[in-house]
Amino acid sequence: MTDALWSEVTRLTEAGELRRLSGAFARFCASLGAASPAVLLAALALSEMEGQGHSCLPLADLAAGPGELLGWPEGQWQTLAGTAGPLPKNAKAWRAELGACELVFQAGEFDYGEPLVLDSDRLYLRRYWRDEMAVADAIRARAQDTHEVDTPEVRRWLDLLFASHRAAESPDWQKLACAIALRGSVAVITGGPGTGKTYTVARLLALLLAVAGEDAGRRRIALAAPTGKAAARLKQSIDKALGDLAQRVGDALPLRALADRMGAARTLHSLLGARPDSRAFAHHAGNPLDVDVLIVDEASMVHLEMMAALLGALPAGATLILLGDKDQLASVEAGAVLGDLCHDAQAGNYSAATLAYAQAASGEAIPGQFSGAGGPLAQQTVMLRHSRRFSGPIGQLALAVNAGDADAADRVLRAGDGPVRWMENAHPAQAVALGVAGYRGYLELVKAGPGAGIHEDWVRQVLQRFEAFRILCAVREGDWGVAGLNTAIEEKLEAARLIRRGGEWYVGRPVMVTRNDYGTRVFNGDIGLTLPDPERPGSLRVYFLEGDAVRSVLATRLRDVETAYAMTVHKSQGSEFRHTVLVLPQDRGGIVTRELVYTGITRASEEFTLITPAGAGLAQAIARRTHRASGLRELLGS
Ligand SMILES: Nc1ncnc2c1ncn2[C@@H]1O[C@H](COP(=O)(O)OP(=O)(O)OP(=O)(O)O)[C@@H](O)[C@H]1O
């Protein structure tokens, strides 16, 4: 009876329409025991959903046909579903069908370790269900764990710490964020670029120190981020903010000692103790992290499994502060954790108790429009709403895109002066020419060599110049994608005699690491430049910049890398470039979304160029939201 289904699965797999893994998973389910073709079809769809970052398959989507959600061509789901015989007609009927199957675990039943889990009206792969439950339970428990605060004392400190400026917004959400974070064991501070997340968190650290009294010197504070670059950036900005603050508060608080004691910011992988060839980390509930306060930046990049591992490894008494921009693209892997956690961030939905506490502790009154009946996490979440370094045309464009206002975005793009440019109806050659011009600066410095100067200083300068410009793509394949542009840019750079390729590795080649390698300590997403090894003439090393520190690995030791003149917007998260060029492909439906365009724009600090071919459908892209199915919001009770 399942023959028709398997032959359609084979056909779709061979046509590249279906992941090989999904077919294999469905067959694995079939091998475990009696499962109807309908259940096998659901397992197949669930695996495809996972491949696209969804943590579950809502039964309503299954009943309606998840073809659109999966971005499948019209009719493809119907054809596949047709081979599975008559299917349950609605979510309720699917629930009954799946609930009766011995491959499906339901809460309350004896757990045989079935591969599929049905929770409420969502179907999960067991691993994602376990992670989602773990994240929801841990966050809920932490959000409810608020403690008594000496509000007059906190107010005095906040007035001192925020004394040097007039708030750019009313109420002063930065001050409120400190007060709210102080009382709990979790806080989420979200905001767009330049809204002062790190500025705020530096003051929060000072506040924690101030109220810790005699314990202050013993508080262990750790900084972390999903990538090495983001971690280095976090440390740099916190150090700077603490340094500025120290100058002002003088001896009132030992802030310099605090900065020294914090040590370097680490990647989440390294903080948790990632081990080669294992998904398990050295730190977990049985061997928790040795921290009192953990600050995680760029939290939008943290996927579900990582968040579950992080929360599992955090001691109960420690405080977790998550920083990030909820409107950026979600993590590459499954989940949209920050987005889910920030469900109430825009509206606030603060309870009367939160409003009263926040006013007493900060002196700031949260306007009535932000009051509501949000769950426990909403009470511990603050959105910073005013950007300080992003107010010009780039900021206006980002705001317009984020608000879904295609007309406003169009106006900024067409103004045609200043730092924003739109090359419309363009040809890929124009993106290539821009690339050659943009990369010329660092390649000329490479050609000039270190001269009589210090090799490391030259390397740092070259890397900094390379970091000033980047081409970002929405897709990997095709003339408008990473692969096509990298090839074309390399050819043109060679023709312009800016590079000389003798083989795969050549002087000046920028590379991106595509897989974690614990042996060489390079991680997925790290970007480095290939330059001569000063110790061994004729051999090449790849140099990575982390903050101001330079690290290098012998080029031949790097296995999983790709050339990185152009890279995907996804991989650019956590980085910022002086001039960012965003290349969008022809609209093929589904790929280019509002979050992708917003993330691309917000990578630019001084100059932004958009390049689109005819028929790019920018307005449609801005209207299209990324949707990731997940049960986290419901599980959190918000
Ligand atoms: N209340 C404030 N008063 C004065 N300057 C501020 C204030 N808040 C932020 N700034 C300044 O604005 C700039 C951006 O702040 P910050 O780096 O903390 O933002 P961010 O939200 O962390 O940005 P990103 O998302 O890019 O990391 C910094 O130069 C910071 O010193």
UniProtKB/TrEMBL annotation:
Signal peptide: none annotated. GO terms for molecular function: exodeoxyribonuclease V activity. Belongs to the RecD family. SUPFAM superfamilies: P-loop containing nucleoside triphosphate hydrolases. ATP binds at residues 191-198. Its EC number is 5.6.2.3. In the RecBCD complex, RecB has a slow 3'-5' helicase, an exonuclease activity and loads RecA onto ssDNA, RecD has a fast 5'-3' helicase activity, while RecC stimulates the ATPase and processivity of the RecB helicase and contributes to recognition of the Chi site. Heterotrimer of RecB, RecC and RecD. All subunits contribute to DNA-binding. Keywords: ATP-binding, DNA damage, DNA repair, DNA-binding, Exonuclease, Helicase, Hydrolase, Isomerase, Nuclease, Nucleotide-binding. Residues 183-419 form the AAA+ ATPase domain. It catalyses: ATP + H2O = ADP + phosphate + H(+). This is RecBCD enzyme subunit RecD. A helicase/nuclease that prepares dsDNA breaks (DSB) for recombinational DNA repair. Binds to DSBs and unwinds DNA via a highly rapid and processive ATP-dependent bidirectional helicase activity. Unwinds dsDNA until it encounters a Chi (crossover hotspot instigator) sequence from the 3' direction. Cuts ssDNA a few nucleotides 3' to the Chi site. The properties and activities of the enzyme are changed at Chi. The Chi-altered holoenzyme produces a long 3'-ssDNA overhang and facilitates RecA-binding to the ssDNA for homologous DNA recombination and repair. It comes from the Bacteria. It is an enzyme of class 5 (isomerase). The keyword DNA damage applies.
